[in-house]
Design a protein that fits this description.
2 strands, elongated
Amino acid sequence: MILLQNAGVPIYQQIAEQLKEDILSGKLREGEYLPSIRGLAKELKISVITTMKAYELLAEEGLVTAMQGKGFYVNAQDSEMLREQHLRRVEDALSEAIAAARIAGLSDRELLETLQALLSVGKAR
């Protein structure tokens, strides 16, 4: 796990986002336990409170559940919910790209051509 101290994003949020990515991509599967709060805090050299806050954020989103005395485990992921979450991430990324294109002065046509070129490169992979 990579944490950036000066990213402008709170550490707990960085942890939650990285674990969320692992869950949504299937790297962490249903029923699997997350690292212990104390263990992860020690590994990352951060506060236990920060780690707990990240796990609670994931629990609020319904991605994990706390099991008394055992820790947090990954919930079953509804395939439609996963698709919606991925779609939301795509929309967010495209919105950021559109904003950056506007700042750079790109026309809609130039932006679409850039997207098409990137899609073509992606097919070759």
